[in-house]
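Researcher: I'm comparing several assemblies side by side, and this is the next one on my list. It has 648 residues spread over two chains. Same procedure as the others: predict the full complex and return the structure.
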Amino acid sequence: MSTETAKKEIDHEDFDPKGTLALILLYFVILAILWIFMYFIEFLGNDLTVIG
Amino acid sequence: MSDALESGAPSFLDQFPDEAKLVRATLWSAFIALILGGLFGIIQTLHRTDILRVMDSSYYYTVLTAHGVLMVVSFTIFFLVGVFTWAVVRSLDRPLVDIRYSWTWYGLMVVGTLMAVVAVLGGFVDSTEMSADVLFTFYAPLQAHPLFYGGLAIFLIGSWLAGVDWFRAWYAWKREHPDERIPLQTFMALTTMLMWYIASIGIAIAVVVFLLPWSLGLFDEVNALLTRTLFWFWGHPVVYFWLMPAYMLWYTVLPKLAGGRLFSDPLARVVFVLFLLLSTPVGIHHQYVDPGIAEGFKFIAMTNTMFLLLPSLLTAFTVVASMEYGARRRGGTGLFGWLRALPWARPAFTGMALAGLMFAAGGFSGMINAGMNINYLVHNTLWVPGHFHLTVGTAVALTFMAATYWLWPQLTNKPLFSRPIGLLQVVMWFVGMALMSNAMHVSGLFGVPRRTAEPEYQGFDFTPAFGTMNEFDMQIAIGGTLLFISLGLFIGNVVLTSFGTKQSSLGEDLPPALSGPSDSPVVLDNLKLWVGIALVLVVLAYSLPLASIISRGGLFGPGVGTYPMIVDTFSALIESVAHAGITETLAQFEVGVIVQ
């Protein structure tokens, strides 16, 4: 199997990494959801922790 | 037929046979450490989850120390020196200055490793007093045999000399190319080594000035907070020392595998400069719960740590954009559709891409660790090993294994034994780690401690908000087993490749970046400037905390005795009150003391 076949040249100016932007935005959305999830699990799901 | 055969270029072995031999030796050393480390990994996984116990729990810390040291010191750093040697020689297109010198630093690293590992394994032999059950962090007052500290020091010196070797090669190249920019891979190796030199000041002082003489009996006690702070002076930048070769592979090899080229050379340089500047003045974020360090110093460390997110996010952008460029060249279209055009059948590509994906998840748990307030919720829980099995255990280890599939044929002139097995192996690592790390994170949230053979203690139940503790234990055990099988497949594939028949023209070129070095400011290559700023930042972050620790406790105190005395004291206490009904409480306390 070859990965070197059927490649087209794309100039620096012609390449707009929109897919990368979409993936990074998706990552930020996931991060925000995880933060909210942490809040529910850690603060609302547990009793107060008393040390000492 | 592989791409390599079609490219027809001379391999690294053809061009630089002496250096290829050295790189193979370093990688073999890394793989041997990986095998042993993996063996200790599966033993502790099955022991801790109470699935299979092949040893008494009293040996748990020997196993844990061996796993930690072999994986994150030996495996990672041997691989680093190998891949950096390859990268420097390849990108400068000239051999090392003196190969005998190169074998000397490799020999020192081997000797150092053997000394430390022998000391650790001594913990299994009851007839000898030699042991080093001090875990990867070797906090005083836990004390190891002098052989352990001596081995660490020699290993460290070996790694320093390796860096000198690459600087010598660069100076030699610079004389022949006075007006040229530093080739990208060499730039990455050099900036990483400069970071390493600054960071290792802490560990060198901790080991050579305090811990080694203390273990030799030259003095009775050390300032535990001081040696601990010096450890983390090195202990955080070392995680970037593991990561930088993986970053180098993501920046320079992964885009090629994806069918394209690096999106931006200047951005890559900026990222490595930022790591040189910011890796060291952050170590105190590992000590948020340490008494004796003022909250203000911890806050400064936290702020610096959050700045470290910048180069990681820059990397996410640059590497993913490079992959997208490759995918679009291969005919990929759409906002997400281009992902399908990537070469997922290639284990080298898939392994690195999955490693990057895991690193994104590790970024999230790392942000939790780095936050001063929320760190208290996860500190010393199983969350923390869950985090670093995503970063060093996958982002680094899986990238190294995937890169081996691409690099090994060029070092041996033997094509990879099996691509399908390679693909299965990298996917199995990803799935195994997803299971194990997820369960570790969740367990940690419910307070399950790290670093103990008996996480349930006695007469105590953890109450998860969802699922059961048994489910989490099963996830950890199944995940750990998949990882161990994956490791076996990797080693088997490499060994069988080595038994293959030699072929010619297995070399692969790395294409230049889309936006080349000429687009970046020349000041980026001014290494002296960046070292100067890095040192200033270190002085700002560490001078006051260290002065405060020393002024309060002195260089060698306040002493608390060494590890066996503490345990003996509590054991005696437990025996004396055995019938007083508070045995369980004390037993828990004892485990807590050892874990701390």
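Model: For your comparison table: Chain B has 21 helices and no strands.
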